[in-house]
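agent: user wants the structure for Transcriptional regulator, LacI family from Bifidobacterium longum subsp. longum. delegating to structure tool.
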Amino acid sequence: MGFAREASPSSTGTQRVSLKDIADELGISQTAVSFAINDRPGVSAETKRRVKEAAAKLGWTPVYAAQALGSSKSMTIGFAPARSAQGLTDETFMLHFMAGVHTSLSPKGYGLLYRPCRSLNEEMSVYRDWASRKRVDGVILVDLRADDPRPKLLKELGVRAVLAGGPDPNNYVPSLSIDDSRTMGTVLEHLSSLGHRRIAYLSGDSNLDYSQGRVSAFRSFAKRRKLESINIEFTNFDAEQAAMLTLEMLRSPKPPTAFIYETEILAAASLHAMAEAYTTGQLKTGEGQSAGYPNGLPAIVSFEDSFICEAAYPSITSAHRDASEYGAKVAKLLLKVLAGEQVSGNRRILTPKLVVRDSTAKPCNSCGI
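agent: tool returned. relaying tokens verbatim.
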């Protein structure tokens, strides 16, 4: 029935108020108290009101372990992204996203079970394990891929889930997505307005849905605006590789005058490599251009915003989105799914805003303009 245990010491050493205490206070049965607390049918609205008032007066709080036993719920949401723990530590967006998830789950008594995985296969094995043990009530998915098998698997396992991203082309799970194509257009409009016509995009993983969307938007813009040249490279989110590719392109006969990076980590690492190359003479400034760093730099834009972009020299122009708000909304959507509410297949939210900083300027002479 979901009864709490008899009064027991709480973490502060005081006796925990039980449902029996509330029943004794009101002179009604413990069953009636349980029904009222859990908003179940079988007791009147007046009884529910009296029970909740008494619970607040006595300082009662739910014992979620007992509640879970009574309702076959684990009161736990699973999050098992196929990313390294170090990768999540470096990427501030995901940390803020998880914090936002907590802000929606905690008031409802849910916890977040975080289990980083080394591969997509490991992630799917975790879902099978969780389903067999009824370890979680629902799952949050991220990083949708081409021909992604996870939404279908979760549907077959009977594990309810929502997708941060997408949408899921097969509609196995509902999703909340960010309009990455429009954001890419905003970034390119900004660079184009400054006169940049040779632009490079250093993406992350070519298999990720949002990376494909950004690449498609980049190509469409380049064709529509007849840009002189574009470069697209996938770095697998490796900062060292991004820096190496950046320097290689800058040494070409007609280098890009602007670089767009998937994350602030890739942008900052590449900026550091450029600074070292300019100050040591590995990259030369052009005629009529002030010598040295940072005058000869190309424009730099990051698709992620954080304190790293603000602290860099020069500060990095970036696409800002509220990751915490995004996480909170994704978690709220999952709570609606768990409550049996009807939800739409996909909603696009949080079109990021461009934060213009010192790293974007008109094309420099040293870039061959």
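agent: one observation worth passing along. Residues 1-13, 286-290 have pLDDT under 50 and may be disordered.
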